[in-house]
Amino acid sequence: MPSGLPGSPDRSPVWWLWPAGIMALAAVQVALFAPAVAQGRSFDLGVWPGAPAPFDSLYRVDGLSVVLGVLWTLAAAAVVAVTWVGSEAGGVSPSTPFRACRICQAGWPLLLCGGLVSMAYARHLLTLYVGWEVAGLAMWPAFLSARQGRRPAVAVATVAVLVHAPGVPLLVLLFAAPGVAGPFVPPAGGLAQAWSPVVAAVLGLVVLMRGGCWPFNGWLRLCVDGSDGRLMLCGVYALAAPCLLAKALIAAPWSAAGIWVLALLGTISLLGLALHVSEQGWAASSPWPAGVVAVLVAGAVVGFGLAGGSPLAGAGAVWLVVAGTLWALVPLRVLLTAGMLAGIWLVSLGAFEVRYGLIASALLPALTLLALCTDRDRPGSGAAWSTHRWLWLAAVGLLMAGVYPQIVVEGVVRPAVQAMAGGVGALSNVSTDPGVGLLVRSPRQVVLAALPATGIAVTAFIAFACLYWLRRLVMRLAPRPYRPHPDPEG
Amino acid sequence: MTTELASFSDWVLAALPRLFIYPGGAGLVAALLVLRLWPGPGPGPWAGSVPVGRARRMAGLRYLPYELSTASLPALAVAWVGVALLPLPGAVPLPLPADRLALAGVFVASLLLEGRPLSSDPAPAPALDPVHGPWRAHAHTYALVCTGMTLAVLAPLAGGQGLMMTGEGEVGASWAGWLAAGAVLCGLLWLSPLAARHLPDGVRWLGWLGLGAAPVWTWVPAPLPGPAWVGVVCVATIGLAVVALRLSGANERGLPGRYMWAVWAVALWVLAALSLLVALIGL
Q1: CA B13 to centroid of chain Cα atoms
Q2: How large is the ipTM?
Q3: Phi, psi (rounded to 5 degrees) for B282
């Protein structure tokens, strides 16, 4: 096995070129595309005049694609760095007889990053599908290493089915309904024809399967007792799945039946997962981050589904995907509510707007149950942050999103929602109070909801400081038997 | 920029009296002291012994320093802020009051900030130290009860337009609101023994009470000011919990029997589901 492969103890001294190169790609995206996107512009990339569709223009740059492209590039860099630095068993066994597996092992960082970026900027369903499968190839080494000890042919066949079978419905859709393969661009001058409920159902199912949601969470069992890098990889890959629905909304809205179908699929998955976990408790076979990621994906399916009726739900879904990807890198229970509350809040408000009150009431309890019932103390439950201190940058980003959601709404969520112009209306009823937090008003200017996150954070800091000094005072003044850590003998 | 700073300072200045006087601060300490009168074993090193006589009545107060020194301060601080922001009668109005989902999120955040409340690790779990043995056996139910409480406080919103508890489109004294209040009461009964010996759980207990009793806050008897009415409801709930504990055949450690705990947990979920159903059909 050549040096420098994941899992290789004699890794190359220039291993850091991989994550550094991927980080540079993120910087290039920001430098090239962010100024144009900030002005509300969008444009095509990879234009080949004269080529048949969809090859005439493969990629498109807009608010949504830049947000997802930069986010996934940074996440891929983190996954690559953790896997490499940790010398974890991320690679296939040296005895693997398949050349294709060795190629995947050698180039999985490239496959991961290239596939995800291709998905983010895809202009057509075919481009997105190809990018997705390429990103799936990056999962092979990790999954094959999890199935070491089995017959190589069986292991390869199992992994091939688990990783690539969920893409088959998309392939069928592409050939059976060629009209679906139309470009992911907003309709020029007028309303686009809504996606049929069947297409919505197929897209929703594909997202649930790829996201490891209930009842399709079987492939996540491969992550159980896995290394941190493998868990991070699975989390980032799973949270990329809802991008399919977001891309579809760029071109056209869902029909009323399509909204219903997507909301139903997401809710069933959410409630099914909650029941599954509540029955099995922390003995459930899914690892701690995977269960939460599945809830976030199901929540995003609901959010993107309801986005046709309410832009708030779309904004919440974008939030869940962005914050969830950051959380997958630092899966700390402490950061869960801080990072996700605004996303859940937005999806819930969107659900109220389209009269889906059940979803609005169920999302936060489902996340609470998952967070409490899955055991974060199992081995390999994503503790990479404790050895890779720089991952705290993701934690800080998540915390900032919780404390100051205004900047995320204005800088990330609003441009992404604007890009989904074909299927989602303008995000007009959310206003940001820069000093306090977020609020949503009805058309009659009645405040329907308020999330004073900044104010709450400041107040919590004051409360914490008071408690800290009170504790010190109590430790000095309290009678000896009632001081902390009293001597049981005494 | 001046306007932005003004809105920030206005909000914080309005929040400070809530944090230090009422409903947080002095009001919260008073409620916690009443909750401390719960009979039963002490926390940590005193978990194995049951005080008797006068010591039994004062036990909860004596253990406060120990509880404060061993509690998770971030969890306690966040729960305190949650209580301070509750829309209770008589509290200073906030320029931008937190809605019901935000407040439920604050209490969930406090729950998740706890050290290791539900670990299956055989090592001692500090957060469940007060009644370590019994609570270890019920750790899974604890998670279900906390989730049920979250569902109960959010269920009445299902039939509404927004998330606010007061003002237009509020969660008023509807049937769904009353059913949710019943569900929260069942959850509070279940949590009472732990809340009496574990500070963050005690503060969260009061927070769930404040959220769940929303229909009660809409009606304040004329002779009573708002804070007094809140105090009456709080003391009545604690008294009810003590009576329920006695009637349920508490053991010598002051804890209810196994089946009684199961009954309260099931009642919580049934009432929360009913509240959700009633809110959805718009009764």
Answers
A1: 25
A2: 0.89
A3: 80, 30
b/e map of B205-216 (b: 16 or more CB within 10 Å)? bbbbbbbbbbbb
Residue B143: the pLDDT is 84
Q: CB pairs below 8 Å between A and B: how many?
A: 228
Q: What is the pLDDT of residue B131?
A: 42
Chain A hits for B109, CB-CB cut-off 8 Å, are: 337-338, 341
Q: What is the pLDDT, as a whole number, of residue A90?
A: 43
AA letter at A319: W
Q: How confident is the model at residue B187 (pLDDT cuts 50, 70, 90)?
A: very high
Cα dihedral value B211, B216, B219, B221, nearest 10: -120
pLDDT class of A175 with cuts at 50, 70, 90: confident
- The number of CA neighbours under 13 Å toward the Cβ of A381 is 18
From chain A, pick out residues whose CB is under 8 angstroms from the CB of B276.
Answer: 358, 361
Contact A370, A308 (CB under 8 A): no
Is A467 within 8 Å of B76 when comparing Cβ atoms? Answer: yes
Q: Across-strand partners of A440?
A: A430, A449
Q: Is A17 an 8 Å CB contact of chain B?
A: no
A361·B76 Cβ contact <8 A: no
Contact state of B167 with A447 under an 8 Å Cβ cutoff = yes
Contacts of B70 in chain A (CB under 8 A): 484
Distance (Å) from the alpha carbon of A354 to chain B's nearest alpha carbon? 10
Return the pLDDT at A222.
65
Are B11 and A436 in contact (CB < 8 Å)?
Answer: yes
Cβ within 8 Å, pair B118-A372? yes
Q: What is the pLDDT of residues B230-254, one digit of tens each?
A: 999 999 998 888 888 777 766 655 5
DSSP string, A162-216: HHHGGGHHHHHHHHH-GGGG--SSPPSSSPPPPBPHHHHHHHHHHHHHHTT-TTS
User: Considering the entire predicted model, what is its pTM?
Assistant: 0.89
User: Nearest CA of chain B to the CA of A459: how many Å?
Assistant: 7
